[in-house]
Structures are given as C-alpha cells and as structure tokens.
Specification:
It is a single chain. It contains 9 helices and 9 strands. The protein is α+β, with helices and mostly antiparallel strands. The protein has 2 domains: about 200 residues, Lambda Exonuclease, Chain A, CATH 3.90.320; about 80 residues, no CATH class. The strands form 3 sheets. A 3-stranded antiparallel sheet has the order 1-2-3. Helix 2 packs across helix 5. It starts with a helix and ends with a strand.
Length: about 300
C-alpha cells in the first residue's frame, strides 16, 4: 500500500525511517537538504514515479509471501518514538502479529540492474540504507529484530533479518536528534548538503514575489548548461559517425581495441501482468543494440 496523503502530512512532524537514511548520507535518491525542505516547506504534490508505484504494487505480494515464514502480518502500521522523547516516526510496511516485529518489504532491480549489494538470504546482509530504516523501525517499536522480505532481479524472493545493533541505534538517535533540533526546529538548512532538483522544484512559490540572487549562482548554472549542450551535441555526432563506420557489421577493430554494436536482451517489469496478478509473469524481454568500446589491456 502506498503512503496516503494523511501519512505524508504526518511525516512533517517526525523523522521517518527513509528520512534517516538520507540524513546519514546513505540514500542514493535524496539528500539531507531534501529532508530539511520536506519538513520545513510547503511542497507541491509529488509526481508519481514509476519505480515507487511499482514497489507499492508489489508490497502486498511480498508481505503475503513473508507470512508463510513469519505468520500473520498486519500491513501499513505507524509507530512513534515521541513517548521516548525522540523525533522518530515510522510508516512500517507490516507488523508480525505474533511477535510485534516490524517488516520492511523491498523490491530491488525491477527497473534496472541491481546497484546495491544484497548478501545471502537469511542474513542481515542488506544495503546500508535499509539497515538504517530497520533500526528506526526498531527504535519506534522497541523490538530487537526487523524482517526484510525482498523480491528482486534474478533472485525472485528472499528473506533477510536485521538485528538491533546498539552502536548503530545510538548513532541514529544522536544524529537524528541533532538534525531535528539544529535544522528542523531551528529552520536552518544544512550547509553540507545540496537539494535534489526534483525536490527543490516542488517548493510552493509566493506569486508575484522576487528576490536578489548572486551573479555567480546564475553564471554557474548558465556555464554548466552551455557546456552540457555542447558535449551532448558532440557525443551524438561522434556516435553516429562511429556506428556508420561499422556499416552492416556487428563490430570492428581499431588500433587499441574493438568496437561492438551488438543486440542486447533485457528483462523489464510487465506492469500489465502485475496488475492482473499473473504469478511468474512479472517480467518481459526487450531487445535493443548497445554501442561499446573495449580497449586492449
């Protein structure tokens, strides 16, 4: 189940589990500046991102599979550590009915090859950002274990278990409390982080208002934009010339190595099958060609 509008609004009053991963610079998609913006500014509605929607679609399936090992799971639960004097609040994917342990359902590599490292099923060898998320869940629930069922690229379904680590927990509590006090409550942006473009663009604007901007800030953007456009045009031209030089061949040799333009096959999520809940038919194969240069060693 996706995050509701009510849950999104409630997030302003807490540091969530995924917020903490970004605050500790372990989230590849968001920065600590993004978290500060989300807690202190009014934002336009977030555009739905395909990979997030897909993860939400898979969540009930993942939890249903996890129930075979863990027993009944109550989905979509909220727990807070406010009663402990801590600024944390977690929207937890599920809570195991028998034990009260939190469950963090994950997908990995459904849209692109897996970038994060997952270890052997049954262990706590999950990506660092997920370890942080699990610890926030455990801080909020008072439990010592967080289960991580994962459906991913090539691995199908696997179960992981993250135990509470006192050192990691204390670090999260200290850093999260500092961020909440020094940045959220004080309304001071962190100076060691920059915003993500898709977040900063969503800040609600005051109509017909103007501010002064330093010339260097404008120049940096204009220079970077112009350099990018020149580089992109040069790359496209050079790529076209290189493919044309291959003629009808799949590859070619040059002084320092080989050039190939080979047919590739890749599995992609078949959203139609997913919506129809057709088991084992979540992926479809697409075909394309990829230009590659391999230099001699």
């Amino acid at each position: 189940m996706g995050i509701t509008a009510k849950q999104l609004e409630r997030r302003k009053n807490y540091i969530g589990s995924s917020d903490m991963s970004a605050i500790m610079s372990l989230d590849p998609f968001r920065s600590k500046y993004d978290i500060w913006v989300s807690k202190t500014k009014e934002l336009e509605d977030e555009a739905k991102r395909a990979h997030l929607e897909l993860g939400n679609d898979f969540e009930p399936i993942i939890l249903a599979k996890a129930e075979r090992e863990l027993g009944k799971i109550t989905p979509n639960q909220f727990r807070s550590a406010k009663d402990k004097g801590l600024p944390f609040g977690s929207n937890i994917d599920g809570i195991v009915v028998e034990t009260g342990d939190p469950v963090e359902a994950k997908t990995s590599g459904l849209f692109w090859p897996v970038a994060e490292q997952w270890g052997e099923p049954g262990t706590d060898e999950v990506p660092h950002r997920i370890i942080i998320q699990c610890h926030v869940h455990m801080i909020c629930t008072g439990k010592k274990v967080c289960h991580v069922p994962m459906f991913g690229w090539g691995m199908k379904f696997a179960m992981y278990k993250v135990p509470y680590d006192e050192e990691v927990g204390n670090m999260i509590i200290a850093e999260g409390t500092r961020f909440w006090t020094d940045h959220v409550l004080a309304n001071v942006a962190p100076d060691d982080s920059v915003p993500s473009l898709d977040v900063i663009k969503r800040i609600k604007r005051e109509p017909k208002t103007w501010v002064d901007i330093e010339d260097v800030t404008v120049s940096e953007f204009a220079d970077a934009r112009d350099a990018r456009l020149i580089a992109e045009k040069a790359e496209k031209t050079a790529k076209a010339k290189l493919i044309a030089a291959l003629g009808e061949a799949d590859g070619g040799h040059y002084l320092n190595g080989d050039v190939t333009f080979l047919e590739q096959k890749q599995s992609r999520v078949d959203t139609a099958s997913l919506k129809a809940e057709l088991p084992g038919q979540y992926f479809k194969t697409i075909t394309f060609r990829k230009l590659a240069i391999k230099a001699n060693k």
